[in-house]
């Protein structure tokens, strides 16, 4: 019996598989469907959106396991779906490894070895294909994914799969779109309509439309609205139209190429074409009056050319020439790393060897005044005007071109073109070409600015934007681009406007201009690695000013102008516009939103770089849109103002949703205080929590992301309209929360796949959060809790709110209830939080869970703050705890864990391993605990701990524990038999 009053996502969600698929999609980088269209921060993976939408639409039955099977089948996350997605073959060696001895004898020659397996000569192609399938099916889910395309690349399921799906759901669909219309009709009476008022980069609207739902998308920010429109109308168009759009891109580029060649600004006298130009600032050393180039590195490029810059002193001019040297030795390359003139944010003068801090060069004047934004200390840098696009000779910072990378085209022996790259210092002719660039821009500057081909807008003050004025003196967005950058990108904008015949062509050209604005600016870092190139401005979530940067010639624009359009034909009804979320009047059955939270990213500031280029073209393409960021209306900051805006928004969304509608709020899971605050915001908006699921992905990264390990856990908070008028009393809530937490954990455990576990402790912890909120928000009001007062308190307040207290109790309930398999409940009760953390951490390892976020959640749940010393590896996706032999004697009796029974048991195991005898380990434990007659009291707990560790002896992926686990088993028996 199907129940359409409930959704699959309310009762269960395969978080482990969705997390893995989301991670696989993120790792595809530019291979992701929408990233080619343009920069946006924090686009949600499409597979996560797809799973969420299907989870909301699918009904539940009296057979939860079958519900789950059908859900996974629709997402191609079941065995048959993975086989359908398989796009790579296993190697012969891997096939051989996965076969039984009998199968090896049947298919492989007698001379086969693990390293060199050889098929028998008579084996047919069909048999090899069959072996591929057989061995593939024996892999774990993680291993299978390495050979698979992403779910979105599967055009459709096979007839057998649809028969099984339709049989369970009582439908007659033969595609996802048909199914969505059918089950949407059964749930809502019509094709479901999905809305997103924080559309951002367009992931949610795009995937909703791709599934066949009607879509409403809005965002306060017009750049976000542009990207969302592009996702639906360009990534959502036909193959034929994409070909037409690519032809338009070529037409604009080829015309730009003709013009630039006619200007003679990129080709030198040898016919070489300049494709990269390196510039640096220079300033006067206050100690010796020398003019010094500010270079944080002297390396131009590693790898094939090993190119460096060398400073040559010119005493008469009190300056330095910069000599470019190719093909230097490894020793010279290494030495050049030390010869920098910018070190530790200070000028390091190569003439007098004095260090002068950059703030002193700028003549910062800290007047002690507290200001609204950072980077607002006055200094003596000249403030650039709207007509400025160059440094003046009188400026504190001047600028010079110090290296050009030219490309020489030669014919190889086959008559084919081959490109040779040369790094050279600019000569007089090069500087003449620089002057010509300057003149060409001056001739067009005023007209182009009026037509909107180059930026003319002022840089507004802000958290990120103030840095530009404080560190460089720039006050207009055009100041961020040198003459060559303005000339080439402005030319592409002009040609787009003149050659476009429709709005799709204008948008595809505008997106190319946006990519140029990001990848060719004075904020574009020169990457001097093995494949040197110009990087983008937004490699992180900031506007980082540079003292040296790379500039692209037109040939290097190819990699940004011709971007990936991974299209999928969309024929749903869609509407996109920029709008304040409180003003939305559109009715939607489902709202899925990923709101800005706590100023994680200052979208309204960062996107003004793009909007400075887009403004006029947006007004032409979308006359009904506005074209500024409306930053005063942006949801930002923390505290009472932020909370009020969020309540107003979600109250409006709730009023534009039917009584049986659903909302999903996506946010990054932080601490209990954030949870409590968000719960009160949504509760105040007339919504109640139904369930919550944590999708964890993490990548190794840099920039602003802490420690090179970027932990990303997206919580899906599932909500319905608040319909109750009941009032609850705090003293009755604890019992109800305890019951709900235990019920939720039991349900999850019953559904879990023992062979391929879906839930970790992080998920059970999250279930306890959700259970507490589910109970709390089921009531109209709770006696003694003043929501408005709690929301008015600062987030950093040390005062624990009643909501936080109840969530924390729910967490304790969960962790008291989650006793590891094979551990006695009485022993578990007496363990320290640190010991419980270590044991459950080892359980995560047994389940092949190696994400940082999972262990962080665990630590948070047990209230353990200092835990990193317990880990042998704490890098993204490869986390694991120390073994006894890796611990050795480290940390014994130093802290709570070092003094614990668990730690001393590990020490005893280490003694056994070292001595290759259990006597040493047993003697260690007796010496430690016999002095106070504790040994016999603790013996049963010691036996439990050793027994738990001994389980790792035969777990294949825990080979690092095998020896320790072997001795743990022997020591357990020695302690058990002690005294007999």
UniProtKB/TrEMBL annotation:
Origin: domain of life: Bacteria
TM ranges: none
Pfam families: DUF1156
Signal peptide: none
All copies of domain DUF1156, residue ranges: 12-73
Gene3D superfamilies: Vaccinia Virus protein VP39
InterPro entries: Antiphage_assoc, DUF1156, SAM-dependent_MTases_sf
NCBIfam families reported in the protein's UniProt record: DUF1156_antiphage
Name assigned to this protein: DUF1156 domain-containing protein
């Amino acid at each position: 019996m199907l129940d359409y009053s409930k959704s699959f996502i309310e009762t269960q969600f395969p978080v482990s598989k969705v997390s893995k698929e989301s991670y696989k999609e993120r790792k595809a980088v530019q291979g992701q469907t929408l990233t080619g269209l343009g920069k946006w921060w924090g686009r949600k993976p499409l597979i996560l959106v797809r799973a969420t939408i299907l989870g909301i639409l699918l009904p539940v039955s009296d057979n939860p396991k079958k519900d789950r099977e059908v859900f996974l089948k629709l997402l191609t996350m079941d065995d048959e779906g993975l086989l359908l997605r398989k796009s790579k073959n296993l190697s012969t060696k891997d096939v051989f490894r996965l076969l039984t001895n009998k199968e090896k004898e049947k298919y492989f020659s007698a001379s086969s070895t693990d390293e060199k397996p050889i098929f028998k000569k008579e084996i047919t192609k069909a048999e090899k294909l069959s072996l591929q399938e057989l061995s593939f099916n024996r892999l774990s889910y993680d291993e299978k994914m390495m050979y698979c395309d992403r779910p979105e690349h599967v055009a459709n399921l096979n007839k057998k799969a649809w028969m099984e799906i339709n049989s369970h759901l009582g439908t007659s669909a033969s595609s996802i779109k048909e199914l969505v219309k059918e089950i949407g009709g059964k749930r809502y009476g019509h094709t479901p309509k999905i809305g997103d008022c924080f559309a951002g980069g367009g992931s949610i609207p795009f995937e909703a439309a791709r599934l066949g739902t009607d879509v409403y998308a809005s965002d306060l920010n017009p750049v976000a609205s542009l990207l969302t429109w592009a996702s639906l109308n360009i990534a959502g168009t036909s193959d034929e139209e994409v070909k037409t759009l690519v032809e338009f891109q070529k037409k604009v580029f080829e015309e730009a190429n003709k013009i630039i060649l006619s200007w003679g600004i990129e080709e030198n006298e040898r016919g070489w074409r300049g494709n990269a130009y390196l510039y640096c600032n220079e300033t006067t050393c206050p100690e010796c009056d020398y003019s010094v180039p500010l270079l944080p590195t002297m390396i131009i490029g590693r790898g094939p050319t090993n190119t460096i810059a060398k400073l040559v002193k010119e005493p008469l001019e009190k300056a330095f020439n910069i000599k470019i040297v190719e093909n230097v030795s490894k020793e010279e390359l290494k030495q050049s790393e030390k010869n920098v003139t910018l070190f530790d944010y200070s000028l390091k003068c190569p003439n007098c060897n004095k260090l002068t801090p950059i703030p002193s060069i700028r003549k910062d004047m800290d007047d002690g005044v507290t200001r609204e934004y950072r980077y607002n200390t006055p200094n003596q840098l000249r403030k650039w005007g709207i007509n400025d696009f160059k440094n003046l000779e009188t400026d504190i910072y001047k600028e010079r071109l110090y290296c050009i990378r030219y490309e020489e085209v030669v014919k190889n022996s086959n008559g084919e073109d081959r490109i040779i790259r040369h790094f050279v210092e600019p000569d007089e002719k090069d500087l003449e070409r620089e002057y010509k660039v300057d003149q060409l821009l001056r001739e067009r500057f005023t007209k182009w600015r009026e037509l909107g081909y180059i930026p003319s807008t002022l840089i507004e003050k802000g958290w990120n934007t103030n840095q530009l004025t404080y560190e460089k003196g720039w006050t207009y967005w055009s100041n961020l681009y040198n003459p060559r950058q303005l000339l080439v990108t402005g030319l592409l904008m002009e040609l787009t406007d003149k050659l476009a015949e429709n709005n799709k062509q204008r948008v595809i050209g505008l997106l190319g201009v946006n990519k140029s604005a990001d990848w060719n600016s004075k904020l574009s870092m020169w990457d001097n690695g093995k494949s040197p190139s110009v990087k983008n401005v937004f490699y992180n979530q900031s506007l980082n000013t540079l003292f040296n940067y790379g500039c692209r010639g037109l040939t290097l624009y190819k990699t940004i102008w011709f971007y990936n359009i991974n299209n999928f034909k969309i024929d749903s009804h869609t509407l996109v516009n920029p709008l304040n979320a409180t003003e939305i009047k559109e009715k939607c059955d489902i709202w899925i939103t990923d709101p800005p939270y706590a100023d994680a990213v200052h979208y309204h500031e960062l996107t003004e770089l793009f909007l400075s280029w887009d403004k006029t073209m947006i007004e032409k393409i979308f006359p009904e849109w506005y074209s500024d960021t409306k930053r005063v209306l942006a949801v930002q900051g923390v505290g009472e103002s932020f909370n009020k805006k969020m309540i107003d928004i979600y109250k409006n969304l709730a009023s534009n949703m039917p009584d049986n509608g659903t909302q999903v709020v996506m946010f990054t899971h932080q601490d209990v205080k954030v949870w409590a605050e968000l719960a009160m915001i949504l509760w105040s908006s007339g919504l109640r929590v139904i369930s919550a699921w944590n999708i964890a992905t993490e990548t190794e990264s840099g920039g602003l992301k802490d420690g090179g390990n970027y932990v990303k856990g997206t919580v899906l908070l599932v909500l319905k309209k608040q319909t109750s008028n009941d009032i609850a009393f705090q003293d009755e809530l604890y019992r109800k929360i305890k019951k709900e937490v235990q019920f939720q954990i039991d349900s999850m455990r019953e559904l879990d796949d023992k062979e391929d576990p879906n839930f970790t402790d992080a998920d059970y912890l999250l279930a306890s959060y959700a259970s507490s909120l589910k109970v709390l928000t089921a009531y109209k009001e709770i006696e003694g809790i003043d929501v408005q007062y709690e929301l008015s308190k600062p987030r950093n307040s040390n005062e624990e709110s009643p909501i936080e207290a109840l969530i924390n109790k729910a967490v304790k309930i969960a962790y008291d209830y989650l006793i590891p398999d094979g551990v006695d409940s009485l022993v578990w009760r007496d363990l320290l939080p640190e010991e419980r953390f270590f044991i459950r951490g080892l359980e995560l390892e047994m389940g092949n869970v190696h994400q940082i976020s999972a262990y962080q959640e665990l630590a948070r749940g047990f209230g353990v703050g200092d835990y990193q010393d317990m880990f042998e590896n704490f890098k993204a996706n490869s986390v694991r705890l120390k073994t006894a032999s890796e611990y050795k004697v480290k940390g014994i009796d130093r802290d709570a864990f070092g003094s614990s029974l668990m730690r001393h048991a590990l020490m005893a195991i280490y003694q056994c391993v070292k001595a290759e005898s259990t006597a040493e380990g047993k003697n260690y434990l007796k010496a430690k605990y016999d002095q106070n007659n504790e040994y016999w009291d603790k013996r049963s707990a010691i036996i439990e701990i050793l027994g738990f560790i001994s389980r790792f002896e035969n777990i294949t992926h825990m080979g690092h524990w095998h020896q320790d686990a072997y001795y743990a088993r022997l020591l357990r028996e020695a302690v058990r038999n002690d005294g007999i």
